[in-house]
Structures are given as C-alpha cells and as structure tokens.
Amino acid sequence: MAVVKRVVELDIVANPNKKSDYFGKYYARIHYIEPLNLRGLCEHILSHGSPFTRDVVEGVVTRLRSCIVELLSEGQGVKLDGLGTLRPTLENATGGADSIKDFNVTEHVTGVHVRFIPEGEELDRLTSREMKKNCVLRKTYEVTYSTIIHGGKEMKIPSYTPINKPSSDEPKP
User: What is the reported pTM?
Assistant: First the structure.
C-alpha cells in the first residue's frame, strides 16, 4: 500500500530571546490553523463518505469525549487502538515535601495533565520520526514580531510573510 504523504506547512521564526546563545537563529514550527470544534470534526468524518448521519456521528463523538474525560478523572488511561493512549499525569511542585506528614495536596500538586502517547501501524504511526517520514515539510511563512504596549502590557504581534518558492531541500509530495 502506497503511503500518502501529507504536506505540513511550517513557520520559520528567529529566536527572539536575547539572553539565549541561539538568539537570532532560525527554527521551524508548525503553521497552526484554528482547531476543528466538535461539529467541524463530525463534518470532516462525514466528508469521507460515512453512511451515518451527522447527528449519529456527533452523538458518538460527544459520548466518546465525555467518557474519556470521566475515565481520565478516575485515573483510568484510555487506549484508542491505532491512535494512542491518553493517560492522566500530575505536575508536582519543585522540591516536594520533607515528609508524608508535610505533604499537602493543594500545595504540592500544581496541576493535572493529560498525556498522549502515540502509537500506530507502520503506515500511520504517530511517533515523531515515523510521522516525519510520512510528511512533506514545506516552509510556508517567515514570522517576525512587533512589540506593542496594550493596556500597560507588552504584547508581541506576529507578522507572516509568505515564502513563495519551495526550496531545494524540501521533498516533493
């Protein structure tokens, strides 16, 4: 089976941190677009020729979402075969407590996170190096930032300049 390579658009950004040894060096990051909401995801599923109605697809996805949240909050990981595992994790305060008696959950646990551990078959593996093999990485925008003061706070406003011509280092789709 032939692998369909997906184009992944990249923003090229100079490191703005003047304290960094890598200040001014250029790095790539994914060019993010607005995430799909539940209805958008259901419409996308339907666009692939699903025999189900939008209401059925939306009902299943809604139930899946609420069940995953319920299970994760109970400490139960959820494995979605071929996609990966969602697992609840904790973020602890730096330093910890000196003894179990001194351990205070409110003080020492600073966050609860959901960790995604990818998996997959050879053709759709989501691990970083395998996914890269199945993508065409394309430089799309150079991103620069302007600093403004708004409401007394310093804000960085991005400016996107298209990189029109694919470079010779980019593989073809």
Answer: 0.62
